[in-house]
Design a protein that fits this description.
Elements (H helix, E strand, L loop, with lengths): L3 H21 L4 H19 L13 H20 L4 H20 L8 E2 L9 E3 L2 E5 L2 E6 L2 E8 L2 E5 L7 H12 L6 E3 L5 H4 L2 H8 L3 E3 L24 H4 L15 E3 L5 E2 L2 E8 L8 E5 L4 E5 L10 H6 L3 E2 L10 H13 L4 E4 L5 E2 H13 L1 H4 L15
Parallel strand pairs: 6-7, 7-8, 8-9, 13-15
Antiparallel strand pairs: 1-14, 2-3, 3-4, 4-5, 5-6, 10-11, 11-12, 12-13, 15-16
Helix pairs in contact: 1-2, 2-3, 3-4, 10-11
Bound molecules: zinc ion (ZN) (2 copies).
Length: 388
């Protein structure tokens, strides 16, 4: 991925190369003139581009990228009638470079709030399972987490990971609870990276699946999620999000609504909180006595829009993964609601668990300045529920 700042540098280098290069190389006028003109064109539309949020200019980065591609086509067209093989190849090379720059540049995603390593919650690591307390642990499955709450007397699984992770979840559960099945599977929401192993696990254990009633259509096969919003930028996860599955799973034979009064079946001291925005029926789980928050995707602790962020999990506090968030007003309200709980520990759907004063300060900042730190610069869903 090419960040906007690097793209701006490449544009400046291109302008210099297009204007000065051909004459320095002693190319004939028929090649020098169109390339110099192309250079002036790039200079003009680059000067008018808003590479960064808040900078001035008439063109968005998306429009700039269309012009890059158009310019590549024009140079390739000129190259076709160029008799000199070396010049033709150089022109074709430049055209390919323009296409690549147009294709691979991604706008800045939501800024988020960086966290120091010290914000990682103290945890005992066993394989990919991070134990935060005797009755609380999470299992990292590549880019997404599932959580285990409870002890072998009574435990529940929170979320069900990516497709193909049933084996990993089952063996982690077996190490933790022996052969005791969970009482239930609780779903924060039904996105594909949280329901991947749901069918297999619910069948295997024969346990109820609890979710918010507004998430039901995505779990009983009725409705697909709205299309992803790759324009939010931030990296490869966002760019490739249109190919992520968004059709519903069907676990209707196991599915139950969460109890209306906010309690969680089989878990004393825990409650669920409706935190919509990322998904209509998104819920977070909360333990008031211990101030522990399982935030699902309402707040995540890594830059999930970037494949690098998702894989490396550098600690950062973010609102929901932007490419799959369909109601930003609700998402902002949910972040504020979770901040108001004043959690001491956050276990999110993506990223490491975080705790302590750095986390508290970052959460405060994210909630206070959500418009600047939590929102993407553009999204088809920015102005409210599904609207453009
Ligand atoms: Zn999600
Ligand atoms: Zn997620």
């Amino acid at each position: 991925m090419i960040p906007p700042r690097l793209h701006a540098t490449l544009d400046a280098v291109s302008v210099a190369a297009l204007i000065a290069g051909p004459s320095l190389l002693g190319w004939p006028r028929r090649a020098v003139r169109p390339l110099a003109l192309a250079g002036l064109g790039v200079a003009a539309y680059s000067l008018a581009t808003r590479y960064r949020r808040g900078s001035s200019g008439a063109l968005t980065l998306a429009e700039h990228r269309v012009l890059d591609a158009a310019q590549g086509i024009a140079v390739a067209g000129t190259a076709l009638s160029e008799p000199d093989r070396v010049i033709r190849q150089a022109m074709m090379g430049y055209a390919a470079f323009s296409f690549a720059a147009a294709l691979l540049t991604s706008p800045e995603g939501p800024k988020g709030v960086p966290l120091p390593r010290a914000a990682w919650a103290p945890a005992t690591r066993r394989g990919d399972v991070w134990e935060l307390a005797p009755d609380l642990a999470y299992l990292r499955l590549g880019i997404v987490n599932v959580a285990f709450i409870g002890t072998s007397d009574d435990w529940v699984l929170v979320d069900a990971g990516l497709p193909g992770t049933a084996g990993a979840i089952l063996s982690a559960a077996r190490r933790r609870f022996g052969n005791v099945p969970p009482r239930a599977i609780l779903m924060t929401h039904g996105h594909f990276d949280h329901v991947g192993a749901l069918r297999t696990l619910a069948d295997h254990w024969q346990v109820p699946v609890f979710a918010h009633p507004q998430e039901r259509p995505f779990l009983d096969g009725t409705r697909s999620y709205p299309p992803a919003a790759p324009e939010v930028g931030g990296g490869m996860m966002a760019t490739t999000s249109p190919v992520f599955p968004r059709s519903p799973v069907d676990v209707s034979d196991h599915l139950h609504d969460l109890p209306v009064h906010g309690s969680i079946p089989h878990l004393d001291g825990w409650s669920w909180i409706h935190t919509p925005g990322h998904a209509p029926g998104h819920v977070s789980l909360w333990h008031e006595g211990r101030r522990v928050l399982l935030s699902g995707d309402a707040i995540v602790t890594t830059r999930q829009e970037s494949a690098c962020g998702a894989a490396m999990q550098m600690p950062e506090l973010h609102g929901p993964p932007a490419y799959f968030t369909s109601d930003w007003q609700a998402a902002a309200a949910s972040v504020r609601r979770l901040r108001d709980l004043d959690p001491a520990l956050i276990v999110a759907g993506h990223g490491h668990a975080v705790a302590g004063p750095h986390m508290t300060a970052a959460l405060d900042l994210l909630a206070h300045r959500f418009r600047e730190l939590g929102l993407p610069a553009t999204s088809r869903y920015l102005t409210g529920r599904g609207g453009a």
